[in-house]
Amino acid sequence: MERRTFYALMSALGLLPVVEGANPGNPEVLLLKRNGWMPNNEHLPVLLYRGGTPTTGDAASTFESILRKNGWDPQWRNGVYPFHHYHSTAHEVLGFVKGSARLILGGEGAKEITVKAGDVALLPCGTGHCRVEASSDFLVVGGYPPGQDWDLLRAAPSPEAVQRMRKLPFPESDPIRGKSVPLTRLWTKQVL
Questions:
Q1: Pure H helices in 33-180
Q2: pTM for this entry
Q3: ∠ CA 189-127-140 to the nearest 5 degrees?
Q4: Under 8 Å CB-to-CB from 170, ≥6 apart: which residues?
Q5: Over the stretch 29-75, which tens digit does the pLDDT of each residue have?
Q6: Cβ atoms of residues 128 and 35 within 8 Å
């Protein structure tokens, strides 16, 4: 087994210590401010795990098992929409289980990232995301905390949507690392 895959699996199972920058299971932290009509969430960072999940075998089923183990509901397998959008009714985890893609997080002209199989993005509600391009085999598993289901918004949030986002409960656990960290350490208040 490749070393990166081994560390990603051990990290996803919570079997490695959490020390900033010490292993591939520690996420990159991206704070995105409001951008035009895109609300984003400047108090809850996007967490981007590089090598956060295995890439061998049935990677989609393995990632779904990791989500369930950590209290998240896997709800779909597909890709990322090719238009800017966000969700006001759910925090979202995207497990990139096959292929690669370029995405924009935060709305037009914001943060462009490249993701590949094994990477995972945790998006707080209100975070804009859009696919720029993807390989032909690109596959994503999407999931949400229990009791949360996604909506699809493509315009500035209404006052009601802002209230939904402000009141949306935090997940009780990190979808990759479980109840300990990093989500529970880095997501501390919800203000839009």
A1: 59-69, 159-167
A2: 0.84
A3: 120
A4: 91, 187, 190
A5: 999 999 999 999 888 999 999 998 888 899 999 999 999 999 999 99
A6: yes
191 part of a folded domain: no
Within 10 angstroms of residue 57's Cβ, the number of other Cβ atoms is 8
Contact 168, 148 (CB under 8 A): yes
158: containing domain: 3-186
Q: Is the four-CA dihedral 43, 49, 52, 55 of positive or negative sign?
A: positive
User: What are the tokens at 155?
Assistant: 């315009």
CATH number reported for the structural domain that contains residue 24 in this entry: 2.60.120.10
- Which amino acid is residue 30, in one-letter code? L
Residue 61 covered by a domain: yes
Rounded to 5 degrees, what angle do the CA atoms 136, 141, 147 make?
Answer: 150
Token pair belonging to 173: 């656990």
Strand-strand pairing, 28-30 and 46-49: antiparallel
**End-to-end alpha carbon distance in the chain:** 43
Element (H, E) at 130: strand 129-134
Measure the CA–CA gap between 156 and 37, rounded to whole angstroms.
4
